Amino acid sequence: MITSLIWILLFLGIPALVLAGCERFTLLDTIGGVVICYALGIIIGNSGLLPDDIFIIQDYMTTLTVPIALPLIFFSMHMAKWKEQSGMVLRAFFGALVAVLIGSVITFFIFRGVIGEEAWKIAGMLVGCYTGGTPNMAAIGTALNVGTSDYIAVHASDVVVSGFLFLLIISILPKVIRRILPVNQMRSEHPETVIEEVHGMKEFTPYFSGFNRQDLPPLLRAFLFSVLIFAVGGGVSMLVPAWAAPVTAIIVITTLGIAGSFIPAVRQTPFTFQLGYYVLLVFSFVVSSMADLQQLTRTAPIMMGYVLSLLVITFVLHVIASKVLRVDADTQLVTATALIFSPPFVPVVAASLKNRSVIMAGMVAGIAGWLVGNYIGIAFGYLMRLL
To answer: Dihedral angle at the C-alpha atoms of 306, 308, 309, 315, nearest 10 degrees?
Structure first.
């Protein structure tokens, strides 16, 4: 009992230390809290330190964390602000979404024979990831009951390949894309205020900077509301056949979390996004501690090829779609960034483009991806299963 309690505290405490370290040290922040938690989890899980009966605790924690994190993340979304963005953003998002879906179909048929029975699940998970982000990948992996080793292999491959793509986006690709697509007419040569001047951007930083005791009661209420949504989703899932229960729970939780963002008192609660992000770090740490390193090394090279092929095909198709839909180069790049990486990366790319005017377009596209990613990813996975 005491040993189990100690491990629960470690599973909760180490991600908190990682989050604090990333806020304080630039190098750790560059690597990213999710990556660090995955690495630490794999190391601890394969070190022989974990007791034999720890699996029950790990299983409970991975089951609970994602459904609780999702509403917290969705609570901070401000739908009304979407009305300020139209035209170009809608075309860019639609083009990106079509590119992800077509690219995912192509890569699914290329790799399904190599991957085997889990291929349709992984396809759905990656669609959710490149429509929304890590929260969607985790949620869809839970909904489709993806094996731990496969999940870790997919996420590790995504980190490596997308990291390389991000370097290209902030260095070489802007010059190339601006030769293909129209040039944005609102470029700025003064990107240094890129974060401060964008409405709501600070909501999507993962750190609890400025947190004080007055913020605790409303944040606790938001957390309990998220737990209530999780309970409702779990209750509804008990009304359907067992095979449909995980999917039903995630869809209900996603829908209620989005609905919660329309309640001003909930949406205006500070630090809900940060708390949801921390809970995802706990999930990342715990789920990676369950991975078998030997099995991971067998599956990772295949997944690396899968993810690399998907991202290359998707990015090329997105450029083509942007050309057809008359989307300018900078909007295309920030939209791709928002969907492939997540909204917090948008200001970094906008700064490298010297064009802060496209930040809100990228943020809106990324938030839209967060909201629809679970629905599209789950539906796509089951469609590939039928095929």
So the answer is: 140
Domain boundaries, position 348: 2-386
Asked if 336 contacts 130 with a C-beta cutoff of 8 angstroms, the reply is: no
What is the number of structural domains in the chain? Answer: 1
Whether residue 203 has pLDDT greater than 50: yes
Contact 86, 297 (CB under 8 A): no
pTM: 0.76
Distance CA 177, CA 169 (A): 10
Which residues does 241 contact at the CB level (< 8 Å), separation at least 6? none
Q: What is the helix (H) or strand (E) element at residue 186, kind and residue range?
A: none
Q: What is the pLDDT of residues 341-386, one digit of tens each?
A: 877 677 668 777 877 777 777 877 887 888 889 999 999 999 999 9
Cα–Cα distances in Å, from 379 out to 100, 123, 232, 245, 295? 14, 10, 22, 15, 28
284: which 2 tokens?
């990342």
Residue of 222, 195, 228 whose CA lies nearest to 209: 195
**Cβ atoms of 294 and 66 closer than 8 Å:** no
Cα-based angle 159, 296, 30 (whole degrees, multiple of 5):
25
Residue 302, phi then psi, degrees to nearest 5: -65, -45
Give the position of tokens 């779990």: 234
What the block records as the tokens of 381 is: 């996975």
CA angle (41 as vertex; 35, 45 as ends), nearest 5: 150
What is the share, in percent, of the chain residues with pLDDT greater than 70?
90
Per-residue pLDDT, 234:
92
One-letter amino acid at 209 equals: S
DSSP symbol at 77:
-
pLDDT above 70 (res 187) = no
